[in-house]
Amino acid sequence: MSIAIALHILSVVIWVGGMFFAYVALRPAAASILEPPQRLPLWSQVFARFFPWVWAAVALILATGYWMLFNRFGGMANAPLFVHAMNGLGLVMMGIFMFVYFVPYRRLHDYVLGMRWQEAGKALAKIRVLIGINLAIGLLTVAIASAGRFLA
Fold it and tell me: What is the pTM of this model?
């Protein structure tokens, strides 16, 4: 159980922490010093390096989360409310990430390669909004995960 918990938490830290860094530190810094022809390729490369880590984190979060759920509680029927909340919010986050990866990120990458800066900017703006939503959900989920057992 301890290995599953450690892998689960490390995966969440990588994913949510990466979104936090990108959203509150990298994004404003890049916007303040780089013009779109430099900023948009930067983001395309940042996502190209970060998203494989998110895919790995998603796989580990699912595997360890459901392993703990079934080994600790015997399934969803016996799990406390905070576990249901974590599960639901995590699945929403994963759905948002998959949409970002397969739609606006792919567009951003293609537009940057074609130096179509206006379209790339629109794709990045969509990614920014969705990552902001996912970051908020992720922080809420971390709060529920860390405090949930004490609230029940």
Answer: 0.94
Long-range contacts of 70-79 (CB under 8 A, 24+ apart): 71/1, 72/1
Residue 68 host element (H or E): helix 36-68
Residue 126 has pLDDT above 90, yes or no: yes
Give whole-number Cα distances, 118 to 25, 73, 84, 108, 111, in Å.
23, 51, 41, 10, 9
Domains of the chain, residue spans: 2-151
Using CA atoms, how far apart are residues 14 and 60, in angstroms rounded to an integer?
Answer: 11
pLDDT tens-place string over residues 33-77: 999 899 999 999 999 999 999 999 999 999 999 999 999 999 999
Neighbours of 15 (CB within 10 A): 26
> How many Å apart are CA 89 and CA 135, to the nearest integer?
11
CB contact at 8 A, 19 and 96:
no
